[in-house]
Design a protein that fits this description.
Three copies of one chain form a homotrimer. Chain A has two domains: 216 residues, Spore Coat Polysaccharide Biosynthesis Protein SpsA, Chain A (Alpha-Beta Complex), CATH 3.90.550; 186 residues, UDP N-Acetylglucosamine Acyltransferase, domain 1 (3 Solenoid), CATH 2.160.10. Helices cover 18% and strands 32% of the residues of chain A. Chain A has an eight-stranded parallel beta sheet with strand order 14-17-20-23-26-29-34-37, with helices on one face. In chain A, strands 5-4-1-6-11-8-12 form a seven-stranded mixed beta sheet, sandwiched between helices. A five-stranded parallel beta sheet of chain A has the order 15-18-21-24-27, with no helix packed on it. Chain A is elongated, with a radius of gyration of 26 Å. Chains in contact: A-B, A-C, B-C. Chains A and C meet through strand 41 and helix 8 of A and strand 31 and strand 40 of C. Strand 40 of chain B pairs antiparallel with strand 41 of chain C.
Chain lengths: 438, 438, 438
């Protein structure tokens, strides 16, 4: 039995987050590593990772130290699941479980699949029970509850069942499945799904098992916050022995503090929160409400990080970072603020491609790619996206998205005049009042 | 003996504070309730409240739970004191004390009046001894010190005495007084005062008693700070048993903390101060110097509130609120600042109607009506007034008043260029330095 | 033996710092006092201070209370060292040591000079051994290592030796030396240096002793930070008995806290740092990294001062002051920030006269003269100079130098519209969430 992870796709809707979704790090591990751990818990020992030319090297570097039984296939172009599996043909034989690593789910998903295959099915598919419309594939079942096919995005009201297709799919005979995949010709990237329908029609026994545990599919950047919450909720709190925490700091609730973290006097961390290894939480900083901070970050004096996901190697300084997603190696000027709430109290909308997507979130801050910088006293409005390697200048009020590799600055109109003020020195008096505490 | 409270007037000079002055809440009670308590302390048990159509319902709602012996009269239009009393005629008989609830004074004021009436006067008026000019009504007395009349705003140097008229007036026979009021015809709203003069001339015995206790008449919005100070000075400190105070918070001096308040770690409250019920004082917040915060407020992380009056249901977040008056349900974006001191160190001027009034105050911040919002990094200059339901956008430097129901935003001129910076990565080095504490 | 301090010059490159360099105060004493103390440690008891008309009075006022054996000469115009000494002729006889008080060095410099003169030299000069080019005077020595002359700014690669001339110069016979000085005519201000060469050629015995201890010549304003570091490194930590330190404050490392200082709750001072007498370090303030704060300063709530030199009588309020030099009596509006790091991570450049000087510093903030003010939310960019008595308005992003006696304000383009937002009140819900800690 091999688990086959489909890592060859490209998440276009994740801009400005350029990292592959499954390579985002939660609690110090990539999502892919978490997925592999889940599979291992279910008893799976052999892995096939189908990479693309851009991530192959990086994935190998991450997985190599784990000493897994893992093989790597290469999908040269992102042409869908069927293409991916066909590209991995040489590694696939007998039983396989095909997994989309951008779907986050619990070990019970594997367990249900593995239990069901004992009944001698040719394939077992995972169906997540929904009670409201989800824009994905729905299972079509016949009168006896047998699998018939998959309806992609049927539209609300037209759902053929209440079971959404999650790609945790068992196939009894990989070679046979691949030969089916090769037979089908389609102009869309739905060969995989259609093939399942064809196989069912041909008399193959394909079962759908219902899954009711946690499931979340990362589609948009703000979904990262949801995944961070999931991992934070799952884990126990822990403070590494190598972390140095000032006795004047406050650590409250479930907080995960990794190796070599330093927490300075007056800092407050209210869990659930994660502080990655070698990061510094500075004097009087507040980190709270499902904030997830990566490695080698410096959260400088008087910064608040609330319900935000911060990558590695970011620097903050007297900022407010609320409900934001900040990728790696970003540098914030002192007193840059992310706004996270609209004046009209409506849910925050975000541009994705050429669409304006309603996130459904009351509160959402900035979404910032790798290697960005902001100037002092900059203001970033709710749901604004900033492309990698861009700079938001001091004093800018940014209420539109900023492309990658750009700098934006504000051209102020100055008025310079002679200073004609004659002071009647009151400072001394003020000082006296202050010394009296008034 | 009934105390008659004149609550039918409208305080035009209080804009943008729309609440009736006597309905402003100090230490959790409306000023009117405080006034009634003062009267009760002096032995008065029956009350007549003369409302107007706009405040009748609200006043009744406030006073109902107090289970007082109270009757309500309605003054349909704000046509002055005489009109008010004539409108309340049906409730008035025998001895009354007419009180302007916007004048704040001590119980001794009542006691002096009540003592004096024993000498058989038709009326006893309260005279506040001033040593500098006050723009109000002055008592005119004859050679024997008997009341002759009232000179309204005589102008500095023309004061007929050093006694200013405070409307805490005893009348022995309400019906008779009302019949006098009805007789006099005037185009101004001075019928009440003139009637007293007429009555004196007619041989009625009208006495003026001198009062030297606390007295303050709320006329302009910034006077609210003075009244807050009065109540804070009067009261003992207390912390409700239902309040939750972090052991890492500092509470110093005379602080009144009401029910269900939460004070977070690192917060500092330096009395005299009041924190209304259900309010939250967040992490690292500083509240000090006669600040008076209402109910259900959230003073978020790293905010300073200094010598300010804050209504109910306000939200702050990393703000500086200094010497400001903020009405109910205002919402401040992170790092909005109120300036409270002029560059030229002169006293702060405020627009009232079409006049520019010198407040005489070195320090005065913003004056903000109900339901306002500010954006992140907004700046509000000293003495600026913001009308109810208005919004000051992010990054705005507001140095003029803003009308009600408006939004003001700044149109920045941006310069967007390609980011051509080639980094020689110094971050790692910086990190090392920081870890060494440099 | 008299030490002769040349205090008549004017440091043009120090703008906007108008104080004479040797009158800048470190650890509560002027640099001149420190220099005199160093001389006293070396056994010198008699002093001649050569002033100019602008500083004579002030220097006398400072030195008078010290009860030194000191005489004052007046150099009417800043015409160089020879002119200075000739002007002080009446006070000079026998052995003298001529000292430039803008050079900071250790007592061993005097000791080396004093030791060497015992060998019967006519003059002993101090040579600082450098291993990279310094833009100053280099000693020219003959084959036997005997002094021949001084080469002013020879240019890199043309240095006649590795010994730079520091003006700590012994002369055996002042009168004789002065007669030499008077003989030489030069159009430049190099009479002093040339005279030494002439004397050597005439057979006078002039020795150069090599000095390897600490030496720093203040030339540009940012050099003040270097001198502050020197004094802070030299001194032990101490906290005056009259200082009041909140038990909730953190004092860490070598910190010098002078008389009557107050440190409020939540404040953190991480040495090496100096807090001058009567200064106030407010609630939640952070002072660290070789910050040197003068007397009568108020560092208000939530301010960070990092690696900065602050004169006397300055006021801060929720600011970030990093790597900055702030002269006396400056007043910062709330949330003014000094940027100290360039987006391109290059070293900071500063305008000096009509040149652009590379400071060689990765981090440098603002350089501000006496009596300046800033408005709320103002932003000052790295290396920007602000002339004395100037004002930076609220919201200004200052990326150019500002002359003396100016005000700069930003003219924002406003957009005022009707507020048409209809709220579906979510505040209550938000409040509930917050009370649950979410």
């Amino acid at each position: 039995m091999k688990a086959v992870f489909l890592c060859g796709g490209i998440g276009k809707r994740m801009h400005p987050i350029t990292e592959d979704k499954f390579m985002l790090k939660f609690l110090g591990k990539t999502l892919l590593e978490h997925q592999i751990e889940t599979a291992i818990k279910a008893g799976i020992k052999d892995f096939v990772i189908i990479c693309n030319p851009f991530n192959e090297e990086k994935i190998k570097n991450y997985l190599h130290p784990l000493k897994l039984k893992v093989e790597f296939a290469l999908q040269k172009e992102p042409k869908g699941m069927a293409d991916a599996i066909i590209n991995a043909e040489e590694f696939l034989d007998g039983e396989i479980i095909v997994v989309n690593p951008n779907d986050v789910f619990e070990v019970t998903a594997y367990e249900k699949i593995l239990d069901s295959r004992r009944s001698g099915c040719d394939a077992v598919l995972l169906g997540f029970k929904v009670d409201s419309y989800f824009s994905g594939g729905y299972f079509k079942l016949d009168g006896k509850g047998e699998f018939v096919g998959i309806a992609e995005k049927p539209g609300e009201g037209n759902e053929p069942s209440d079971l959404v297709n999650i790609v945790v799919h068992y196939h009894k005979d990989a070679k046979k499945f691949i030969s089916h995949l090769k037979k089908l010709v389609s102009e869309n990237d739905d060969v995989y799904e259609k093939t399942l329908g064809v196989m069912a029609a041909d008399g193959n026994k394909i079962k759908v098992v219902t899954y009711t545990g946690y499931w979340f599919a990362i589609k948009y950047p703000w979904h990262i916050l949801e995944i961070a919450k999931y991992f934070l909720d799952k884990e126990y709190g822990r403070i590494s022995k190598t972390a140095k925490i000032s006795p004047r700091a406050t650590i409250e609730g479930k907080v995960i503090i990794e190796d070599n973290v330093r927490v300075f006097e007056g800092a407050t961390i209210k869990g659930p929160c994660h502080i990655g290894k070698n990061s510094v939480i500075g004097t009087d900083v507040l980190v709270w409400n499902y904030s997830h901070i990566g490695d080698y970050c410096v959260v400088g004096y008087s910064t608040e990080v609330k319900h935000s996901f911060i990558g590695d190697n970011c620097w903050f300084h007297s900022n407010y970072i609320g409900d934001s997603i900040i990728a790696n190696s970003c540098f914030f000027g002192a007193k840059t603020v992310t706004a996270n709430y609209r004046f009209d109290e409506k849910t925050v909308k975000v541009n994705v491609g050429d669409k304006r997507i309603d996130t459904g979130l009351d509160k959402l801050g900035a979404i910032m790619g790798d290697d960005c910088k902001t100037g002092i006293n900059a203001s970033i409005m709710p749901g604004v996206k900033i492309g990698p390697n861009s700079i938001v200048g001091p004093g800018v009020v940014l209420d539109k998205d900023l492309e990658s590799n750009k700098t934006i600055s504000v051209e102020q109109q100055y008025l310079i005049k002679d200073n004609t003020i004659k002071y009647t020195s009151k400072k001394e008096e003020l000082m006296k009042r202050l010394l009296k505490g008034k």
